[in-house]
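user: Please review this fold.
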Amino acid sequence: MNTWPFKFAVPGEIVRRALPRLLVTALALGPCYARADTVKLKDGTVLEGNITDEDKTTVSIYLEFAKGTIRETRRINKSEIAEIVPWTPEQRSAWQTKQDYQKLQRYQLDPQANYLVEYYDQVIDNAFREFLSQHPDSPYGSNVIAKIIAWQAERDLVVAGNVKFHGRWSPAAEAAQQIGRQRGGQLLQQARGLVSQGRLESAIQLLQLVVHMDGQPDLVSQAKPLFDSTCQQATVLLARQRQKLQVDVSSAQQRVEQARRALSTAEGSQRPTTGGSSAATTQAQSAVNKARGDLDAAQNQLRQVKGRLDDVELRLRTLTSQASEPIAVQAPKPQPEPPQAHSSDTFETLAEIVTWMKQNWIAIIIIGVVFLFLLSRFVKD
């Protein structure tokens, strides 16, 4: 979706601060548009614009070209001018109307994508309707009204939740799927190019975005095997780098130890002895300085190698984490549970009991009476 970096709505505080400057600028530019003239040069060139300055030898004229996108103030020697034809107020008004209409041509609907609702409102109100307000009798009025209708119709589509994608209007949800599919395809293509260039870790970053795309199962199925194989290749390469750097760190540590022993030996030989010459002392001091320099260089090299090793180990851990991260898969919709198998058996058993009781109700009553009689005798005793 195309967006525009500017907005016409300006906070009140900014307007309050900027208003004096705007008034001064307007007053300063006022004389520049006080005259509108046609300047004919001796070579046949005709210039139409506003004369902004004139002295004994030159004339300055403000010109606009290419629908107002190119502007310049040209200073011309009077010796080159054949004639200056002042415009009438009607000519100047018509020229200004034409200039303002040409400036409206910068506002065009995008045939491929839509804008934000705010941008439609800004253009309709601050450009088209403002032109009609300033030039109510303009011959371009019908064209501007047609532009307002077209922009308003597209704005209403956006407000209704539609999106223009590749020149086709669709509901926002459908367009989001199309945009995601296009974006995922681009990422997948870029990742394949990076893999062919050997930039595996950069490719993994892009592939990771694709394999986690919701609602794009086709892209995920294409990206997942490439993601797994690329992670495996990158892991092998980083493991080899780590192994080599571990050897380099060990060698650098040995050089540091050797430099320390050399410095200790040099400092021991520097101890003053009876009858020692100044030349010997100077030589011993030089040996100490050299040993210290060698130790500093060895320690610096060790720090650099350790830094590279730490970087590789961090990248390896990150890569391992990315490779083991589960891919989100849409859970299937819950299905209604089937009826339990034993429910019909239960109903059949109850039916059989009821039928038996109906058939033997006399025996059941006799047994009940006997039971109550025996129970009463037992309670009396």
